[in-house]
Specification:
The protein is 50% helix and 0% strand. It starts with a helix and ends with a helix. Helix 3 packs across helix 4. It is mostly helical.
């Protein structure tokens, strides 16, 4: 109960400055030996959303969360959109795709 009160204390946890999902180091490389995963195009879509300020538009128009600790509405909305774009059928597919990407990055 004390942990919850501490987490919700406005003086202790100011809201984040923006969405958690960013696009700082997405790079594409093409060659004959390049290997890729099916969800790799999400990076390009993410860069497009960043350039078009889609995050700001979502956060201005969608007001569900009282506090952004640390996620904003745009983080949640785009997570579901990315799941649909990668042919995800249920919420578990979000976790499966995340693990596939992590496994790919470790192996290569």
């Amino acid at each position: 109960e004390q942990k919850i009160e501490k987490r919700l204390d406005r003086n202790n946890n100011p809201d984040g400055n923006g969405p958690v999902m960013g696009a700082p180091n997405i790079h594409y490389e093409m060659s004959e030996k390049t290997r890729a995963i099916a969800t790799g195009a999400i990076g390009a879509f993410h860069i497009l959303c960043d350039k078009r300020k889609l995050y700001d538009s979502i956060n201005e128009k969608v007001h569900v969360l009282k506090r952004h600790l640390p996620y904003h509405e745009s983080d949640h909305v785009l997570n579901l959109v990315y799941n649909a774009l990668t042919d995800g059928k249920c919420l578990q597919d979000i976790e499966n795709n995340r693990n596939d990407v992590a496994r790919f990055c470790i192996l290569h």
